[in-house]
């Protein structure tokens, strides 16, 4: 069984969580991505968010929210994704960049629109952080 190692940014505002949709995809994902060889969690987080959303994550403000594992969306059965999630403050104006087609704020009612691992994260955020 293979693993996809990903880092994600949890940004909650007014009971909604920041999500992204990549070009050509109909499923929404939490912003973030795969670690490059030798990268730390925070280095991955900062690089991916800068690439996808054109903002600077402030690493000193980062807090580990949780690590979640589920079947990787769009991969063969048995390929799992391990998503390590951090909340953090940022500087700049959020805007879609590179492969990101759309940025949105999703509530719990949008759970069916996100990947399987993000559904687990939505459940966690609803129970612990006020996702509405």
Automatic annotation (TrEMBL):
<comment type="similarity">
    <text>Belongs to the Nudix hydrolase family.</text>
</comment>
<dbReference type="InterPro" id="IPR015797">
    <property type="entry name" value="NUDIX_hydrolase-like_dom_sf"/>
</dbReference>
<feature type="domain" description="Nudix hydrolase">
    <location>
        <begin position="1"/>
        <end position="132"/>
    </location>
</feature>
<dbReference type="InterPro" id="IPR000086">
    <property type="entry name" value="NUDIX_hydrolase_dom"/>
</dbReference>
<protein>
    <submittedName>
        <fullName>ADP-ribose pyrophosphatase YjhB, NUDIX family</fullName>
    </submittedName>
</protein>
<dbReference type="Pfam" id="PF00293">
    <property type="entry name" value="NUDIX"/>
</dbReference>
């Amino acid at each position: 069984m293979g693993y996809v190692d990903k880092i994600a940014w949890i940004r909650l505002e007014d009971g909604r969580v920041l999500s992204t949709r990549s070009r050509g995809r109909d499923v929404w994902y939490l912003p973030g991505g795969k670690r490059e060889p030798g990268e730390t969690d925070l280095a991955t987080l900062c690089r991916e968010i800068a690439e996808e959303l054109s903002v600077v994550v402030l690493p000193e403000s980062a807090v580990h929210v949780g690590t979640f594992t589920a079947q990787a969306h769009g991969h063969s059965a048995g390929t799992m994704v391990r998503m390590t999630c951090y909340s953090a403050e940022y500087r700049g104006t959020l805007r879609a960049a590179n492969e990101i087609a759309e940025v949105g704020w999703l509530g719990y009612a949008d759970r069916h629109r996100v990947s399987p691992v993000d559904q687990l994260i939505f459940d966690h955020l609803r129970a612990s952080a006020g996702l509405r």
